[in-house]
Batch of 2 targets.
Target 1
Amino acid sequence: MEALRERKQRGERITALTAYDYPTARLLDEAGVDVVLVGDSLGMVVLGYQDTTEVTLQEMVHHTRAAARGLQRALLVADLPIHTYDTPAEAVANARQLVAAGAQAVKLEGGASHAAQIEAVVNAGIPVMAHIGMLPQSVREEGGYKLKGRTPAEAEILLRDAAAVEAAGAFAVVLEIVAAETARQITAAIDIPTIGIGSGEQCDGQILVTHDLIGLFPWFAPKFVRREADVAAEMRKAFEAFISRTRGLGVRGAEAKPRAV
Ligand code: KIV
């Protein structure tokens, strides 16, 4: 965790991507990513839920175990899903389950409103990554994935949230869909690294959902993502090639029929 703070001090960017399984985690680790997040985005891109609000702790534990097996070097952070950290005591008990599954740190959504939970988990010896700005676990109340920190009043709230999570002991904070200028101000105002997603280029690091980066979830991609591959198209090509090669073998048994003499 200290290494990430030192990276911020040196101005070196921090890289973070999601993984929910062994091969993806291992490929990310081998590629040299700094942080692997078992995000509750797994609800959408792996489990087929509408949003992250249906993800359970058991699902997070299961996928954290798988991702942990693939890592040798990168820091493994796992999300506490919705309603698993409503109180500080619940946050600590559930964070311990993610750590037992292989996570080295946990992430939870919320700023000043969740400082007590962050403090309790940190005091229990578990590092916490905070998450402010657009909070996907509140998407239903919010009515969508909307830009945050656009007005001076909104920016002020986010600056206070960032200061609160830092004071509570978080080692880093995700800024999700925050206006770029506000993200820049937050990054300058706190000593812990900011990891942006859809929040401009002035954060200390960047995180994306891997499926969005590699085009593995072709039915939806946030506008701010610059896709680096079209894995879904490659998969479709391979599936079609297999189907056509197998069907091209012809009717089974036809070639083996004994000839009439
Ligand atoms: O769940 C997730 O994947 C996340 C990141 C996108 C920040 O919270």
Note: Residues 18, 37, 39-41, 79, 174, 176, 197, 207, 209 surround 3-methyl-2-oxobutanoic acid (CB under 6 Å).
Target 2
Amino acid sequence: MINWLKDAVFYEIYPQSFKDTNGDGIGDLNGIIEKLDYIRDLGANALWINPCFDSPFMDAGYDVRDYKKVAPRYGTNEDLIRLFEEAHKKGIKVLLDLVPGHTSDQHPWFLESKKAEENEYSGRYVWTTHAFEGIGGHPYISGMSERAGAYMLNFFASQPALNYGWLNRTEHWMSAPDSPEALATQEAMKDVMRFWMDRGCDGFRVDMADSLVKNDDENKSATAAVWRSVREMMDRDYPQCALVSEWSNPWQAINGGGFHMDFYLDHHGNGYNTLLRDYETGGEDRSFFKKDSGGDIMRFLNDYLPRYEATRENGYISMFTCNHDTPRPARTLSEDEMKLFCAFLLTMPGVPFIYYGDEIGMRYLDVKTKEGGYQRTGSRTPMQWDHTRNYGFSDGDPADLYLPQDERKEAPTAEDAMKRPDSLWHVIQELIRIRRTYPDLQADGSFETVYAESGKYPFVYRRGDMIMAVNPSGQEVTVRSVQFSGRSPLYTIGKASVHDDLLTIDTQSFVILR
Ligand code: NOJ
């Protein structure tokens, strides 16, 4: 396993919205470089940057037009290389976002692939052989090219699916996963990865990693085989570079595909979702960290523990505060509720991710869709740094900002959060410091449940020599365990005390016992 992942805490940056240094209203790479000290002071030591490559931005950059060129609105390749260098000087790793399953329909490969004459890229995407023949059960487009055929879509209409082959083939035009054209796609993607790793990047977050080979089996074994071959390349040539998958099935992604980490995504009703987003819009909120929601920690544990047990020897599960596709936690959680969730996130096994702005409790805003964001757009608004023009995000014209900002007087800013000693920002900073001090709390430390009961509080868990207890409810609660004897609080949010084997933990409190 890669050593630096053990105490890694990631910070996700949506580059459009982090920091604009040239006044055009859109964040840029120089802005990220300018804010590296802020990220380091918070305690994060790794970044995931959403796609920053040349793109028509029909899906916020997940529609890549040139994998090897930084989008001019963010800067140049030299700026990105400088970002790697400056980050490394401060002990910060940088993961880029790899979108291997599709390109933009403006990518030169696709423009060639659309041509009637056979060429090097004819087999780079999934095509049928007649304009009148669709792709049963899958979205496709036909009638838009001189080439006779329909092409498959991976996501939006502007994102044609790259061809990694089909495992179960029912039509003559379906390539095998080991066909020359499918292998050529794999090689082209490895070439992109090498290009950036050779220039100093520390690995990739991989978009829709589970969806490469079509009609795969239920274990996604053909897609996993593609990733194993990528992992072989990395172990051989870039052994310090890491891969994290957007897959949300660690057994398939980590054990099967060889990913170092797999995201536990917010899917309604899964374990992660029951912690902080267990609501349908307008419906009752049953999230565990929501005060007095009647939340149930067993709904998390029953889903999480089998995933954790099955993969703990091989890689890490990554939980996050939020990401660019997910409603910000502050949509429903108060600052106190967020503190308890972050305390949990930062003391659990695996590698945690913090989404920019969550450390100050930025809100989910009701804004018009931008670049294919739709309801995701509300989590993508510009960072609120301070009380200068545009909250210090940009000195450009407010009308030019990538997205509107929180207009309320009480809108949080990083400056205010850093000044207030009891802010969420300081809780996160202190917990990262503790995590870094005690290896038991890091990614690969052990995990055991000490007390967890359906519908009851607190939730108590042990990691090596440390015991954590969290009580998000509105009542003081007590619990007995011989494991508490002789221990005392190392860190507390709210109030908690131990007498012999009895732990008393106040409403909305968290404690680390040692
Ligand atoms: C997942 C990404 O996180 C999302 O933002 C994007 O729209 C889709 N994949 C398609 O690439």
Note: The mean pLDDT is 98.
